[in-house]
Amino acid sequence: QVQVEESGGGLVRTGDSLTLSCALSGRTSGNFALGWFRQAPGKDRQFVGAFKWLAQSTDVADSVKGRFTITIDSVEKKMYLRMSNLKPEDTALYYCAYRGLSDLFQVLRMSASYDYWGRGTQVTVSS
């Protein structure tokens, strides 16, 4: 069992920056992957980014590329989503997800590929 917990959300203004954290606890595998997704009211859950822990490689959605960056703290077993130049359309509930076995990024872009999810952290960007 793996527990996933997001934090760091809040209310910010257009153009601001914000960093979300994703903390893992429990027994993780040696070759897992993590994903960031977001969901706005009335919309489908959208892929934001993914990280392969063993390969130390990152994928970010085209819609946020150049503004969002994924970093990790391997000692604390945390993943961060650094968001800059935020826009009102970035407003959503942001989720972190864990997959026990890493895979191709095209697989990691699908929300159904993940085994455990956090409860989400709300990001609201005012215009």
Describe the structure.
- A hairpin with a 4-residue loop joins β5 (46-52) and β6 (57-60).
- 31% of the residues are buried.
- By secondary structure, the protein is mainly β.
- The protein contains one helix and eleven strands.
- The strands form two sheets. Strands 2, 4, 5, 6, 9, 10 and 11 form a seven-stranded mixed β-sheet that branches. A four-stranded antiparallel β-sheet has the order 1-3-8-7, with no helix packed on it.
- It starts with a strand and ends with a strand.
- The protein has one helix at 105-108; strands at residues 2-7, 10-13, 18-26, 33-39, 46-52, 57-60, 68-73, 78-83, 92-99, 116-117, 121-126.
Task: Quickly describe the structure.
With 127 residues, the protein is mainly β. The protein is built from one helix and eleven strands, in the order E-E-E-E-E-E-E-E-E-H-E-E. Strand 5 and strand 6 form a beta hairpin.
